[in-house]
Amino acid sequence: MAPEPPAADDAADPPTLPLLVARDALLHPHLPALSWRTRDTDGWTTLTWSQVAQHTTRLAAGYAALGVGPGDHVLLMMANRPEHWLSDLALTRLGAVPVSVYGTSAPPQIRHIARNCRAPLVVVENATQVRAWAPLLDDPDSPLARLVVAEPHQEGIHLPYAALLREPVPDGFEKNLDGARPDDPLTVVYTSGTTGEPKGVVLTHRQVLANARALDAVVELPPHVEHICYLPLAHIAERMLGLYLPCHRASHVYLCADPAAVPAAVREVRPRQFFGVPRIWEKLATTLRAGIARLPEERRRAVEEAARVAREHIAHRERGEHVPPDLETAYRTAREEVLVPLLSLGGLDRITWAASASAPMPPDVVAFWAGLGIVVMDAWGLTETTGVATSNSPRAGFRLGSVGRPVSCAEVRTAADGELQVRGASVFAGYLRPGGPPDSPLDADGWLATGDIGRVDDDGFVWITDRKKEMIVTSTGKNVSPALVENTLKEHPLIGQALVHGDRRSYVVALLVLDTEAALAWAADRGIDTGADPADPVDPADPVDPADPVNPADSAELAALAAHPALREEIEHAVAAANSRLNRTEQVKRYQLLTDEWGPATGELTPSLKLRRRVVHDRYAVQLAALYED
Fold this sequence. Notes:
Keywords: Fatty acid metabolism, Ligase, Lipid metabolism. This protein is of the alpha/beta class and about 625 residues long.
């Protein structure tokens, strides 16, 4: 029998996710919980927490009628749409284990995940995904037996999602809901696979809620805060921020199924918090920089002065110092008169917690946002640590360039070779192993080797150098951090992406990808004809697609710009400037300039926008080899 919903006086800290939902429906029945847009409506459709509880009860009954029960894995491959979010909660309430899969997964990855998690059912979005999954219905190595399709009229011979909600809720059914125990699996999150096959990370209710409490302790947010959910729900960051933390906080999730619509959603919602992986912050910064560069000189100087004041103000806070009264007054004036009007164009004027994780944040991007009064609080963690293990914090302190201090549910130490190790209440038990207990990589004392190289300073802040397996060892035996060199190169706005290469070679080379938006703005400022309409200036509020964030110009036009002598000279200066800040071993001796941006759709980036080095190495093997020819 399921536990009774918590009473108001003991509802502060329920031990499982279903009991959090029950608490939210009991204590905050009329607060908005979930909003989304549909094709046939202009505004948002919203469910309250009471309605979420009612809807997921009906949905759980529909899944139970298909034979889904406690402990069963169910695969979900959909965008950030209500069917995905609500199914996740409904399956959890049923005691089943929802497993979200990246929409960009290749057929071999889909086959591996289906066989590994032994799911009998998958819920997909449309006919395209049906074609990817249907062959597995006849796969003798997978128990997959049924497909459910979310989009109306695209199900073919398979079950329409709407049928799940037509099932009547049996008498007494609710008594069998919400019975999960704290140490039961809550989900399995598959790593995005920068190398090798994805691994299924088994996370329990206890681990997820420990991480949620720890993260809440280091942020400063108002109650029931809004969150724009746009990163894939197959990624641990969005599962925590867009699903589990909203249940913990009884907050309001805005689903954004189309990443290109995120800027419009941000402008409309004006969220108090915003999370983006570094590539997203980079692209937003590029757009704003281009817009600022086109302002009249007087306004541009006002922005530059306001940015100087903001950075000085943040520097005092970073050092833990009292901000002098005259600086505090100057900052408030600069913020009200210059920065807030600028940020409001993009809906970022109410931000109180901005965060990033998953890869090192370029220092110039951090400095740019600091100049707008936004401290991007870099954090660090893995899927295996249930997300955040360390975080900078407006409450507990921050160091720009670091990934902050360990949160309360994690300990961090450095091994003899510099590899960071983590243990604690939110560290997972192991990888999914069909037919047996999880395969644990933890040592006898519970420490997880993270694969990241870094250090912990005297104040407890953690600094990441690079991935252990990605470190370059030159033919002379010197170690080079590719991320360090790449971020130094990307400090020039024309260089949008970079890959550094040189393992077992005598010197380091690089592939540099031209930033389309910055290049077009740069060319326009210098009167270089690119074929773009000069009457169409870059606006700070122009949309940026976070998943594929460039609206590219004609490829031939961009290639011609990349070959222009003035631009080539500027790139040469950019590489020289980067080299001047690097030691001799790290310096880039040769490079190739590319114009096609890397992304998840073309395979060079993971769905969470991490660089797949192996893919880039293979795809550009000829170009890389040519950089070592005499």
